[in-house]
């Protein structure tokens, strides 16, 4: 039995979601499995710690509308069970499941800004955050190194100023960062990273690449 099937059977609301919201059972099962796997991988990589971070996956219903599977609030992503997930509409209103993440407004805004995104992953990467503090907010120096990856990923990265977590100001700042189609991630000052992907694993890979870059630059800094 796949991980997604296990989650589907354990989530009390899953069967009702298929019936009431026109979701395909196979796609919801796949989303369950992907969510659990990606969050566990992000925790293993150190991109998520404790209860921080959140993730969503866009789902299509039979009537053409979309909804999202999203992590619940206060859930330890590295040890998440079926009761730690929820279904909400694309305006951020909960439909079924756990109490939704406080960062749901950010996911809503990002999906509106980027219709090509199928997954949104928000992590708290230690190296990137430490690098930002070492550079004292000098964005022109952030990930700027004489290596091939630097040139590639700087084109895919945008920045958002600090706003309180869960606020509409933060949501709009991140969405504005994704305005250019080449942007794949937005670094939130003093907060973390928000990445998108056409698949859940692509969003994780973007975070992993950027965190690796951050570690390289930290190692190269004097002192």
Q: How much strand content do the residues show?
A: 15-25%
Termini separation: 51 Å
Main pleated-sheet profile: 8 strands, mixed
Query: Percent range for helical residues?
Result: 40-55%
Order of helices and strands: HHHEEEEHEHHEHEEH
The low-confidence runs, each spanning 5 or more residues with pLDDT under 50, are none
Gyration radius, in Å: 17 Å
Helix run count: 8
Which term fits the overall shape? elongated
- Pairing-aware structural class of the strands and helices? alpha+beta
Count every beta strand, where a strand is a DSSP E run of 2 or more residues: 8
Largest sheet: spatial strand order: 4-3-2-1-5-8-7-6
Overall pLDDT metric: 94
Structure notes:
- Strands 4-3-2-1-5-8-7-6 form an eight-stranded mixed beta sheet, with helices on both faces.
- It has eight helices and eight strands.
- It is elongated and about 60 Å long.
- A hairpin with a 4-residue loop joins strand 3 and strand 4.
- 42% of the residues lie in helices and 18% in strands.
- Helix 5 packs across helix 8.
- It has 223 residues and is of the alpha+beta class.
Brief digest:
By secondary structure, the protein is α+β, with helices and mostly antiparallel strands.
List keywords for this structure.
about 220 residues; alpha+beta; eight-stranded mixed beta sheet; 8 helices; 8 strands
């Amino acid at each position: 039995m796949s991980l997604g099937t296990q989650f589907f059977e354990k989530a009390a609301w899953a069967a009702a979601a298929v019936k009431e919201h026109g979701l395909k059972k196979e796609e919801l099962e796949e989303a369950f499995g992907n969510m659990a796997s990606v969050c566990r991988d992000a925790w293993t990589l150190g991109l998520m710690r404790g209860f921080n971070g959140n993730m969503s996956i866009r789902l299509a219903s039979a009537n053409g509308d979309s909804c999202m599977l999203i992590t619940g609030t206060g859930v330890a992503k590295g040890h998440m069970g079926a009761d730690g997930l929820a279904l909400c509409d694309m305006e951020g209103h909960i439909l079924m499941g756990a109490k939704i993440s406080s960062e749901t407004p950010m996911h809503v805004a990002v999906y509106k800004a980027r219709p090509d995104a199928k997954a949104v992953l928000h992590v708290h990467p230690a190296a990137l955050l430490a690098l930002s503090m070492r550079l004292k907010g000098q964005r022109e120096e952030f990930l700027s190194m004489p290596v091939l990856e630097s040139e590639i990923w700087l084109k895919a990265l945008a920045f958002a100023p600090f706003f309180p977590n869960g606020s509409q100001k933060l949501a709009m700042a991140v969405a504005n960062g994704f305005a250019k189609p080449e942007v794949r991630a937005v670094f939130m000052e003093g907060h973390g990273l928000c990445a998108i992907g056409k698949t859940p694993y692509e969003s994780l890979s973007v975070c992993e690449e950027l965190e690796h870059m951050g570690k390289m630059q930290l190692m190269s800094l004097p002192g």
